[in-house]
Write a structure and sequence with these properties.
Elements lengths: L4 H11 L2 H12 L5 H11 L7 H15 L1
Helix pairs in contact: 1-2, 1-4, 3-4
Length: about 70
């Protein structure tokens, strides 16, 4: 699962922390997220094309929880 630049920028804005966003994206790009959590992250992130800020924060929380 690769994270594109737009998604990474959205994470930076939502997290308020460029370094943390990069860390999350790197972890996902390196496929270090537990396999059973990838479906959850993917399911949440599919809503981002029409996302409100709330949906974006939901996605960020799911990703952060997955790599924590």
């Amino acid at each position: 699962m690769a994270i594109d630049a737009t998604t990474q920028r959205s994470l930076e804005i939502a997290l308020g922390d460029k370094a943390k966003a990069a860390e999350v994206c790197d972890a996902i790009d390196a496929n270090t997220v537990d396999a059973d959590k990838l479906d959850t992250v993917a399911a949440v992130s599919t809503t981002t094309s029409e996302a409100t800020t709330t949906n974006l924060h939901t996605m960020v929380k799911a990703i952060v929880a997955a790599v924590a």
